[in-house]
Amino acid sequence: MIESTAVNQEIEAFINGWEDDDSAARQGFLDLYRHVRALAGVTLDFVGRPGVSYSLRPRGRRQGEGEFFAIIDVIDDDPQARWLSVCFYGHMISDPEGRGEVIPGGLAGADGYCFDVAGDDAGVIEYLQERCREAWTRVS
């Protein structure tokens, strides 16, 4: 992993400031953050837009500025009921269980998959971790 102390501190401050410590969305985001952070050669961007979303964007070593292998968003339109939207470019992953929603042209003009996580389903987080690993493999 390539460290970016300021970005990691910003992400950790966001996680630590999350008021509902027991929420499934918080735990899912934390699990995904830890997972992508541990992948070799990954750098992270984090874009906070309070009231809209908080977006974790991991990049592999061969990707340029603004290119990401995943977009892990905490949807913040209701801070008391946050949920996750995790998206990938279509050419970077498979979706063998058909859990994702195909988004034609929806990721910067490219086809993608988005997975919405609103409940407490550890299986979906594990599935998304596998998709992150799959996308990372394609860009590392």
Automatic annotation (TrEMBL):
Organismal lineage: Bacteria, Pseudomonadati, Thermodesulfobacteriota, Desulfobulbia, Desulfobulbales
Protein species of origin: Desulfoprunum benzoelyticum
Entry protein name: DUF5655 domain-containing protein
